[in-house]
Amino acid sequence: MLSPTELDSRYEVSVEEYERKMRIEGAIALEIARSMILPVVSSELGRLVSSLRDSEGVGLEHGRKGLRAAAEKLGVGLDLLEQRCDALEGVLKGGANGEAVGVASASLREIVDSIEYIVDDSKWPLPKYREMLFIY
Question: Does domain 4-127 have CATH number 1.10.340.30?
Fold first, then answer.
């Protein structure tokens, strides 16, 4: 049986290990978002805007509304992605506890998951959920 001092010591070591792992996971999530997701979303938004501009230039009556709606959704997603990356970075730099890192990481993941459905499958740099569900 452990003494109260030994029990406290093991608890402190476990908490420190948890905090360290959460900071590592948060840093990796931030790196993936900034180096893989953000560039793809920016590129996809540029492609949609260019298509919209081209469709207006040739006087298309149909399709522009859909292009505009897709570009707006992606633009909102890109703004939120950048905000949540900044928030996670602030939490990591501020030395926050593992719970705060987990909350900021989950918030970032939420927007990445929603953007995943908008970006062209061939451009998305990671496996999508539906692809992972059917890997045998």
Answer: no
Residues 128 and 99: their CA atoms lie apart, in Å, by 26
**Phi then psi dihedrals of residue 122, to 5 deg:** -70, -15
> Of the spans 1-5, 34-38, 130-134, which averages the highest pLDDT?
34-38
pTM for the structure as a whole: 0.86
pLDDT digits (tens, 9 = 90+) for 6-25: 999 999 999 999 999 999 99
| Residue-range domain boundaries for the chain | 4-127
Q: Average pLDDT in the 51-57 region?
A: 89
What distance in Å separates the CA atoms of residue 108 and residue 125, rounded to the nearest whole number?
Answer: 17
Helix (H) or strand (E) holding 39: helix 38-57
pLDDT at 136 over 70: no
> Which is nearest to 33 in space by CA: 88, 73, 72, 70?
88
Q: Which residue has the tokens 């590592």?
A: 24
For residues 115 and 29, give the distance between their C-alpha atoms in angstroms, rounded to a whole number. Answer: 15
3-state secondary structure of 124: coil
Counted residue by residue, the chain has a size of 136
